[in-house]
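Sequence in, structure out. Go.
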Amino acid sequence: RTLGREYLRVSRVGLKEIFFGNDDDEERKFDVVREDVLGSAINTNIYEPRGAVSFGSDYTELTLKESEKKIRAKIVVDGTGAETSFTIRDGRENEGYQIAYGVECRVEGEGVTADKVGDYDRKKMTLFDYRSEAWRKSNGLVEQSVINTPTFNYVMPLSDDVIFFEETSLVANPAVSFQECKNRLTARLAAQGVTIKDVLEEEYCYIPMGGDVPRKGQRIIPIGAAAGVVHPSTGYQVARMLSSNVYFCDQIVEELARAGENGGDFDPDVAAARIIGRTWTPDSMRQRAFAVFGGDFLMKQNVMGLKGFFSGFFKLDEGMWAGFLAGWKNLPNNEYHDGWWPRVYFGIVFLTKLPPNVALDMAVSIVAYTLENGLDLIQSVTPLLGEPDTFDQSFQFRKNNGDVAAKWEAKEMMCACDRCEEAVEVEEVAA
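Output:
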């Protein structure tokens, strides 16, 4: 089926150049320290080895691993990826893993023509090719493994003679091996009369999906994959990260301005909570809970279940399926998923598009998932359970001095007591 959507491949090298800049650029307004930071979080704001990360009343201090130099900052952001050692995200035992072996190459064989590479059109991107019937017994593959832990092929022609293939396990736990993906790609292409002639670049893609949002109360602030921004059902992350960073960075600017105007008003813990809270608003957390269930459901499907799932998925209106694939505020078509009612409507319509056996499996899975994992999914599709707690909620009463009037009244009454030989002072203690 033709989806009528354009697709692109992000340049890893180019993206890093944008983020890090050029060391010779005299106009660059930031420094790049090319050295690892020492430390690993073992509990909230507790790191080992001792002294690797320390916290002051208005700063955080890091230790560089090789030089052992100290770097001190008011705000520290953790962009070290999904398996960061600086940020704690609970529930990671429930994660799935997207694994992909990709190859940019030149091809040959009887299946290669001016218009086609095997079954693939040279002028079109192929998104999901889950077919495996013709090759699942070849190249040393175990047929039942191919059926139970399915993979699909991305195909992107890059020029007249260069093409990119990526054999991908959408989500599984334990992860499918890279060698298995490579063997399946070789078998898939061979069944279409195609062999790889020249390997220009290989890609090994590993994406943890699911788990919880970051634990509340952490001083070091995660961003992107470290913050759990990876889509729990699709593995998409780059566009979600870039979109979420706008609000994240706006809040950093606001917090630093507060520190500059009056340093006494700057609380790094509260600042950290407000900053991560711009990424994970209650609405974002509810929308994510809906997608986490989707990832859990997909992880349990064999090849026929996934074929049935996606046959129904792409029968939805384009805005509905495209909005789910991206699934983030301010990305296109998110209005189909950004509230409890749009998500309910999406789910009902989706069930009607699915093959009956897949629809029944999904309905049963909703009940089983809720019994096993709690009410997050129900909270995402009804207004009955309220909103998830915000990240700064725990700091709401941090500077509360209690009822000052009541404490002064007690002091005055004790001082006025005739039986007291001397005045009794009451020391105010901040709550």
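Check: DSSP finds twelve helices and 14 strands in the chain. Residues 139 and 174 are 22 Å apart (CA to CA).
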